[in-house]
Sequence to fold (119 residues):
Amino acid sequence: MADNNQPYDPYIPAGGPNAGAGTAQGGNSRTAALQAEIDSTVGIMRDNINKVSERGEHLDSLQGKTDNLAQSAQGFRRGANRVRKQMWWKDMKMRMCIAAAVIIILVIVIVVPITQSKK
Fold:
């Protein structure tokens, strides 16, 4: 059995770290290859986690920009409605002035000849 002073490690062969020196070389290269693959996978996962974190930051930034844009659109809509109403009143005033001018001209054209013919 292995030395009781060392904790059990499933990656170390049963005979201990020096047991089977002839086969340890092949096992070490295989272990090293597996460790390199694990390290590569861990590196890829760290990159993925960093990318997800950056994506979350970008999404937060986009959310803030979207909120600002929505507020700006609402302000623009209010301003556009105010201008539309002002232009409607201005147009209505112009129509009233034209209608009043037409009525005055008609009164002059109709009433003046009638009053002169009575004299």
Notes: The chain is about 80% helix and 0% strand.
